[in-house]
Target: DUF6891 domain-containing protein
Amino acid sequence: MVTDGRGDAIDRAFGELMRAGVVALRNAGVTQSDGWDEAEQRAETLSDELEDEELAYGDGESDEDPVRGAVFYHAQDLARARRGEGLYLTYGAFKRSGRSRADHDAASVEIGVLAREALARHGVDVEWNGSVDERLFLPPAAWAAATRRGVAGAGPGAQRRQASAPK
Model:
């Protein structure tokens, strides 16, 4: 998993998504296009890992790729979050040959739902209207809370703020 060393709540949610066949990356490239390139590369190795696990623990009968999609944020998203603007997450299903646009959109919404639910289970508030046309959004307060629970370095002056915060 690509990380920037922040927020264990997001790390836990992203780990859960990876185990469920959703590539979940932090700080993946600079743009959405970069992020999708990194997600597709990671999908290849994750697919092998999940298939090996299925053979070890499951029936191994499925011909379907166990990796369904991705969720990530990239460097531009992280820069906005560090400025106090909240964090946007890109999500979606991987393209499959023979799948209609409507089916692809529905599969992408399923990935968005999985990501929102995983983050919520780990105490991270997410705003999203359920539309494939809107990215998931961690409001500034949710982003700040998730990163405060992680390690120092949640942005400029974070160690000073943590040291001077009331106990």
In short: Helices lie at 8-19, 32-57, 75-82, 101-121, 140-148, 158-164. The longest strand covers residues 87-93. The chain is about 50% helix and 10% strand.
